[in-house]
Design brief:
- It is a single chain.
- The protein is of the alpha+beta class and 693 residues long.
- Among the domains are: 4-71, no CATH class; 75-170, Beta Barrel (OB fold (Dihydrolipoamide Acetyltransferase, E2P)), CATH 2.40.50; 458-503; 507-689, Ribonuclease Z/Hydroxyacylglutathione hydrolase-like (Metallo-beta-lactamase, Chain A).
- It contains 19 helices and 23 strands.
- The longest helix has 33 residues, at 350-382.
- It is globular and about 85 Å long.
- It starts with a helix and ends with a strand.
Length: 693
């Protein structure tokens, strides 16, 4: 088997990823099974992946016993602890409070060292140290659990008071953090706000203050990878010193580039994507130093093993998955380009050679953008994110602009420290601002194109991609990959047609916003109706949710608040329920009935979808006759005049939970979704039954 280390590393990381979702007691029997398979087939190609799976499962089990298991007894306990504020601290929703990760260095006077996640603690800067009373618990089972574990966080802490400041921590990571912040501020000083934030994010990985509008635009256009420092940034920056030298200068140049890679990794805070790219680049430089051939897939496999050894949950990180899948897509594009070059006829005329070479270069860029996007599509869908229908176009138009932007940023930072260079710094900052303004314009134009956002049904899309992947494997083993293209096209078009048919008239009702008072976003056939309650934070949450779900046309916003404060709903059509009569009925979306009730103390909205009725209330509405509904979307209160069969909520600590018993209560911490096919079915996503006390 060629590239054995690449196959071993891929199997190793995949095994750790699956092990994260398996019970610990299953790991040893599974590892023994794959060890047996590796022993039986060690002379064959499948022996290497089997060995990688065995090592991945065994490594995860050892990591669990050595790191995770010792922390489990802390859950449920209260203690006086000394903590250090880590570099991801940011303002929390409560005024004067911060949220982020904390390093616990003392437990009731005993030294210790582990990370916790905390959603509210007294405002403090990274590196600040203080002692306080804390209550510890296991991480909540939500969309962020595995992301926390990939960062080495396995517990959450609740601040209880007794704050006592301590001397600040002087660890090296905080020195690098302060340097990154200083450099980012210097960039922003010489540039306009929008372009300075963009350059700081692309060059230094500092997204502090980066506007949500910029991040959304880049994501919609399919180039959000430009905002997250990754392998592309590392390769471009470290390629600055790749120009040719005489042989006697080659090895000193390699050492210089290795130093630059390590410096850049530390400066950006060692995110997983940069760690992966930095390790691959360092392995390549080591190969150059010892005059050994280097292979991208082999280096990537080695990086996967090294990252998995230091934290077995690293493969659960979104950046890790996107980074490795993108590498596989780029490698597949390179293989396809080599196959195309080997099967093209040799041109006889110089002009034909020139045209063919330019055409092949353009085709290779298109294939890289397409296959890298296709390889990362399953990861995006699995994490509930949208894909971009213009990603290939945007990458072709914009990616080439990244290298000059990074180089000009370095010029501005370096020349600021040299005397007499301020005029050059001003010129470079103006040029960089104009360059970034052009990049933003191109990205914004692409994001505004039709089909820029593609929202796929999660489970169905993953099933289709799995079928296409199995077909690719079958055709590859049969050495009939040319036949795979028409087969994949037929299957893909059939799946798209079936998907469009299955989504027609489907109503999706999502609870979005604060846990105690979420809004209901109702979508059907590219249109949306919003049943609104809450404040400006809920407006932002609804806007983001719509943006992440193909940005449907908002046809109506029903403001259910009895005493509404002034909020910015933009161009959405809004009606305030307090301006209506006590009972109003109207039709919205495609034959969805909307009944609105209100009195002096509360309001109630009931959606009628076929023979199903979904209710949402604000305050405590009083009706002469109770209303029976299939589902009630609960907030902080549960009106007595609503009789639901099922309750869906985003909080597990509401007061009314102690008073319900007969109904089914479904809990979804992030965004629970109710899906209704008129007159046919009602199903749920992102929810679980809540055990009532």
């Amino acid at each position: 088997m060629k590239r054995k280390l690449a196959w071993f590393g891929l199997a190793f990381a995949t095994a750790e990823l699956f092990a994260a979702y398996l019970p610990p007691l299953v790991l040893l029997p599974a590892a023994a099974f794959f060890a047996l398979l590796a022993f039986l087939y060690h002379r064959y190609a499948v022996g290497v992946p089997f060995a990688g799976i065995f090592c991945g499962l065994l490594c995860f089990f050892v990591f669990y016993l050595a790191v995770v298991r010792p922390l489990e007894p802390y859950a449920g306990q209260t203690a006086q602890c000394t903590v250090i504020v880590e570099t991801d601290a940011e303002p929390a929703y409560q005024e004067g409070m911060y949220r982020g990760s904390l390093r616990v260095t003392s437990w009731n006077g005993e030294p210790t060292n582990f990370l916790v996640e905390c959603r509210a603690f007294p405002a403090a800067a990274p590196g600040d140290t203080f002692t306080a009373q804390w209550k510890f618990a296991d991480l909540e089972t939500d969309a962020y659990q595995m992301s926390y574990r990939s960062q080495g966080i396995h517990l959450q802490a609740e601040y209880l008071g007794s704050y006592q400041p301590q001397p600040s921590c002087q660890a090296t990571r905080f020195t690098w953090f302060r340097l990154r912040k200083t450099l980012a501020q210097r960039l922003k000083t010489w540039m306009t706000a929008e372009e300075g934030e963009l350059e700081a994010a692309m060059l230094l990985g500092d997204k502090t203050g980066l506007r949500d509008t910029i991040q959304d635009t880049f994501r919609i256009a399919g180039v959000s990878h430009l905002l997250a420092v990754s392998g592309l940034h590392v390769a471009l920056l470290c390629g600055i010193f790749s120009f040719g030298f005489r042989r006697r200068f080659v090895r000193p140049l390699i050492v210089l580039r290795a130093f630059l890679v390590i410096f850049y990794m530390l400066l950006t805070g060692l995110p997983v994507s940069v760690l992966r790219a930095g390790l691959v680049f360092l392995i390549a430089l080591a190969g150059d130093f010892f005059l050994q051939p280097v292979d991208l897939l082999t280096s990537t496999g080695a990086a996967a093993v090294l990252l998995g050894l230091q934290n077995a949950y690293v493969p659960c990180d979104l950046g890790f998955q996107l980074s490795f899948c993108a590498v596989l897509g780029v490698q597949a594009a390179g293989t396809l380009s080599r196959w195309e070059e080997g099967h093209l006829p040799d041109p006889r005329h110089p002009w034909a050679v020139h045209i063919l070479s330019r055409g092949m270069a353009l085709l290779e860029n298109v294939q890289i953008a397409f296959l890298a996007g296709l390889a990362t599509l399953p990861v995006l869908i699995a994490h509930g994110m949208t894909a971009s229908g213009v990603g290939v176009l945007t990458n072709l138009l914009v990616v080439w602009m990244l290298e000059p932007a990074l180089q000009l940023g370095i010029v501005i930072l370096v020349l600021q420290f040299l005397p007499g260079c301020l005029p050059v710094v001003r010129i470079a900052s103006v040029l960089l601002s104009l360059w970034l303004r052009g990049m933003l314009s191109l990205v914004g134009w692409c994001a505004g194109l039709p089909l820029a956002q593609l929202a796929f049904p999660k489970n169905y899309t993953l099933l289709v991609l799995a079928v296409l992947g199995i077909l690719a494997l079958v055709f590859h083993m049969a050495d009939r990959m040319l036949w795979y293209l028409p087969a994949a096209a037929i299957c893909g078009l059939s799946a798209i047609a079936m998907g469009i048919w299955s989504q027609e008239d489907l109503v999706r009702i999502a609870l979005v916003g604060t846990a105690n008072n979420p809004c209901a976003v109702c979508m059907q056939n590219g249109q949306a109706v919003i049943l609104f309650r809450g404040g400006q934070s809920n407006v932002r949450a609804v806007t983001r949710y719509l943006t992440e779900n193909a940005d449907p046309e908002v046809t109506l916003v029903v403001d259910l608040r009895q005493d509404p404060s002034l909020l910015d709903f933009g161009e959405w059509p809004v009606i305030e329920i307090r301006d209506l009569e006590g009972y109003t009925q109207q039709t919205t979306l495609d034959d969805v009935a909307l009944d609105l009730y209100h009195d002096g103390s509360g309001s109630l909205a009931v959606l009628g979808v076929g023979n199903r009725h979904i209710a949402l209330a604000s305050g405590r509405v009083h009706l002469d006759t109770p209303v029976s509904v299939d589902v009630f979307c609960a907030g902080s209160s549960l009106p007595d005049t609503v009789l639901p069969q099922t309750i869906v909520c985003c909080t597990d600590s509401a007061d009314w939970l102690t008073s319900v018993s007969a109904q089914t209560v479904l809990y979804g911490q992030e965004t629970p979704v109710i899906m209704i096919r008129p007159w046919l079915s009602l199903t749920y996503e992102e929810v679980k039954p809540l055990a009532l006390q």
